[in-house]
Amino acid sequence: MSRTRRLPPLLGCVLLGGVLLALYAPGGVLRRDEPPPGPAGRSPYDLSGSIEDAQDRLRHRPDDAAIWASLGLLYLEQGRRTADGAYYGKAQGAFERSLRLPTGDGEPYIDAVIGMGALANARHDFAGAVRWAERAREAAPYRWPLYGVLTDAYLELGQYERAERALRRMLDGRPDLASFTRAARLEQLHGRTGPARRLLLRACEIAGAPAEYAFCQWQLGELSWNGGDARGALAAYTRALAADPGHVPSRAGKARAEAALGHLDQARHDYATVVTRSPSSVVEYGELLEHLGDRAAARRQYAVFTAQHKLLAAGGNADDLAMGTYEANHGDPEAAVRHLRAEWRRRRSVVVADALGWALHKAGRHAEAAEYAARAARLGGHDALFAYHRGEIERALGHTESARAHLTRALSINPHFSPAGAARARALLAATA
């Protein structure tokens, strides 16, 4: 029943959409007909190879601001692809080096400015992302990736009208994979899955690199999963992995869909593969193990998560949303409320509204919880887990008919939304039939 299982959906767009558009757009570091130079036989879209090539070029041209910016963007994309946050620190170092170097007109290299905005989004510093993107817009209003950074940041801040205006500017100037995937996310937020699917299919058609295609297929998988189509989701995740076997989000999605379809051995194998590469799915894996009765193994996964969080917090990068969600489901509800109130002060998005409402419910404050659950629904909470949370809250308030309606809706949206949550929703409905 956890949202700690993956990053908020927009953050994938932050990285792939913004990074590849910044690299290949007109005026960007690279052009599609001029892939990064490298040894013969290497794929022009091999991220690890491209990083090595940029590093090699910097050994000969250490004061080239453009190469430093391109390296930072490549690090960002590698971080998204592998779900390895260590690449974010590398990206920051590359961007900062680029910003310190002089350019021909004496201005900072604009892709480094945009990259810092994308990096801020990846680190959940959405107000900071807006500041970087606005700085880029003042200097170069026709560099379309900056509007992607703005779209993503405003969505996470809950400022949806501003997000839509930024996206419209991006679509008008550069209708491509980066803008189509963001438009699909907005359509999905409003519950319009048909238009969202058409936009993602269009993005898949124009994807030029394996990483782009994998990203689009992953998004299609997420759309299918959120709509309750576990088989369709599994097919999309599998296509993504065929294009990019190292795409961690698709591997995690594949495991989730396999578990829903009863392929438990394969699901456990894929989850084990994911968590050895990135700890981003350890709570989700732990919840499956707990549902299957292997509580000792589940506790080991939860211990990995809490250790990771302590390291992040010690470095000043605490994730209050992830930790608050974890505490609400598996730990101290009062601690969950503290974490999520802190997150709510930073951004008032649909995900945070739902998470805070759930934490308040787990802490016994059901009336206040209901206010946040209703707010999540108003913001665009077309999500089975949100509906389930609201059903549990209404039940705690004694509103039996409303509770049944929300629990029924949760299962109609996605009968596999959570191993434990879906089972409980069915049990509650059966008990009040």
From TrEMBL:
Record-linked SMART domains: TPR (SM00028)
Any Pfam family matching the protein: TPR_16
Alphabetical list of InterPro entries matching this protein: TMTC_O-mannosyltransferase, TPR-like_helical_dom_sf, TPR_rpt
An MF annotation (GO) of this entry: mannosyltransferase activity
GO biological process: protein O-linked glycosylation via mannose
PANTHER family referenced in this protein's UniProt entry, alphabetically: PROTEIN O-MANNOSYL-TRANSFERASE TMTC2
Protein name: Tetratricopeptide repeat protein
